[in-house]
Amino acid sequence: MLAQEKKRVTNTRIMFVLGAATVLVFSALQSEINFLTLFQKSGNMVEYIQSYFPPDFSDWKIYLEDTIITISMGLWGTILAAIFAVPFSILASENMSPIWIVQPIRRILDAMRAINEVVFALIFVVAVGLGPFAGVLALFVHTAGTLGKLFSEAVESIEPGPVEGIRATGASKIQEIIFGVIPQVMPLWTSFVLYRFESNVRSASVLGIVGAGGIGVSLYQSFGSFLYQKVCAILIILILATSIIDLLSAKLRNWLV
Length: 257
Hints:
The protein has one domain (59-256): Orthogonal Bundle (MetI-like fold), CATH 1.10.3720. Helices cover 82% and strands 0% of the residues. It has 11 helices and no strands. Helix 10 packs antiparallel against helix 11 (228-256). The radius of gyration is 24 Å and the shape is globular.
């Protein structure tokens, strides 16, 4: 019996490996992956990149102002998403809510994160007009779906002991969440929020392409005018801003967690 069980497990693993390999090959064909073409035409890419240098910082004040707007969009999009994600993550956690609530909430979160921020930005530009507010709303909706999923997974991974202890005292459901759940997940939640803030700043930098404000407007105009040296200057400013945010986020994470 033991030999048969080992053989069955081995066969299952072989089938899994073959299935995974088939999916990878199929995906490569669908994606038209061809590294030979990339190597053969790398000279064109080098020539194109050379046109970006030297960077033109003549409009650096405008770029800096637009970058601050972009960071502000990322900040508020993340804050609103985190506020929204907390209650929805509780409702989406199987160990905290009944299945008839969990599944609909999860599908809502799936829909929110399945649609790209640019699509949401197009929708909100129609609703509230051109400008950063549309970008904030787009980031908020997409990020809320992502954080809701991550938060709920953290909630489902908690130790049940503290929650059961609080429940034994006759505490309400909200008290169980506040005193039994949130203290356990707060370090992970904090890391998720800080990471999404960094990601949202990067995402906000392209929302201006569809009229949602920020540095993306200047980036789109420079690309459209073939002013690649200005594009290079904008990209350098974005890289510096993202690096600074990363350093500050790391310090804040160490302080909070």
